[in-house]
Amino acid sequence: MPRIENIRCQKILDSRGNWTIETKVVLDDGTVAVQPVPSGASVGENEAVYIDEEKASDFVSTSINDVLQGKDPSNQVLVDETLIKMDGTHNKSKLGANSILSVSLAVAKASALSQGKELYEHISVLYSGKEKNNGDLRFPSPIFNIINGGKHARNNLSFQEFILIPALNIPLNKAIEMGASVYKDLKQILSNEDFETGVGDEGGFEPHGLSCDTALDFLQRAVSKQYEAGRDFFFGVDVAAGSFYEDNKYHINEEHLELSSNELIDYYIKLLSKYELIYLEDPLFEKDDTSWKEIYKKLSSKLMIVGDDLVATNPKILEKVIKEKILNSVIVKPNQIGTLTETLEFIRTAKKAKLSVIVSHRSGENPNDTFISDLAVAVNADFIKSGAPARGERVAKYNRLLEIFYGF
């Protein structure tokens, strides 16, 4: 059985030009695995804490290396528990979630490579104890963020993402092809009407002068070029409502609106009556507890009420939220919690409660990082979010899914 021989870490740039880190794990059988970590622009209060990249790199190359040398990389639980114990804080603020996650994921990759397995096959064993064969594969439906707003763009849109969701009966390869086609049609429509076609952090267009309604109108028009809304595609919005919540009001500045929680819920109900909307992510500020119950009561039978900042890929928070019955879908971002083991525990908890699982990227990514694609396949995720079908760091995730799909 191979053992961990050496762990090293260095600073690298992410897709936004910000510093992040990547970790290299070397096993004593010669296996080498490298794993960078992403970062988010819209960060929830419950997320595990990143530390300075220089400190993180130093921790990995010294303290973490010394403790994990000689350990079995296939024992992911032991590796992750060792890292959690070394850190000793509730939010990984001592060693940093970036340090811990880069090591946790790199060890998983090294173990898969050493065993001659695909990464998704190895993660599947960690998740369920069962190895996936090609005939067992179930693929997530892609969620395309094709108009960016909020903290992901340089326009005045309050809502963060306007999303395109292919019908669930469409095979993965066809869904990606169709999503890319609509994306190109949207670009042409925007250009024809003299809107900017520059892109935001996640590859979606970031035109100025739109409201929520006009953004959804553009999506609808782009879909109708070749397809039909409500049959081939549906729409969603990542509201990221906490980013424009202040003094107990939701400030939608481009529409000159200051809404109470109930008024914002009514705003969503109007959108639902106009568009083929099936997805609302973080529709309320994460601490607006009473209102989450209200929106679940009014809309959970009609669309996906998705928690991101609210649950932060934290199994303990999720258990509490499940008891409260305030959502029916969750976002999974490994860097919000900091280890693969805790991420898999979160997914198991969500699946047991029959919640939809959406494995997601972050706004700061790396073109060499396709870990979430393998993760989504390994755990039978319902959806995967990797931005628009554009920009190398976004497309890499879709291309990795296609590689698995075709057995390439």
In short:
40% of the residues lie in helices and 18% in strands.
Could you explain the architecture of this structure?
- This protein is of the alpha/beta class and 408 residues long.
- It folds into two domains: 4-116, Enolase-like, N-terminal domain (Enolase-like, domain 1), CATH 3.30.390; 141-406, Enolase-like C-terminal domain (TIM Barrel), CATH 3.20.20.120.
- It is built from 13 helices and 14 strands.
- The strands form three sheets. The chain has an eight-stranded mixed beta barrel, surrounded by six helices. The chain has a three-stranded antiparallel β-sheet with strand order 1-2-3. A three-stranded antiparallel β-sheet has the order 7-8-9.
- Helix 2 packs antiparallel against helix 3 and helix 5 (172-192) packs across helix 6 (212-224).
- The two termini are 28 Å apart.
- 53% of the residues are buried.
Topology:
Layout: E1 4-13, E2 19-27, E3 32-36, H1 53-68, H2 76-87, H3 97-114, H4 119-128, E4 141-148, E5 161-166, H5 172-192, H6 212-224, E6 233-238, E7 245-246, E8 249-252, E9 257-259, H7 261-274, E10 277-281, H8 289-299, E11 304-307, H9 315-324, E12 329-332, H10 334-337, H11 340-352, E13 356-360, H12 371-378, E14 383-385, H13 392-406
Parallel strand pairs: 4-14, 6-10, 10-11, 11-12, 12-13, 13-14
Antiparallel strand pairs: 1-2, 2-3, 4-5, 5-6, 7-8, 8-9
Helix pairs in contact: 1-3, 2-3, 3-4, 4-12, 5-6, 7-8, 9-11, 12-13
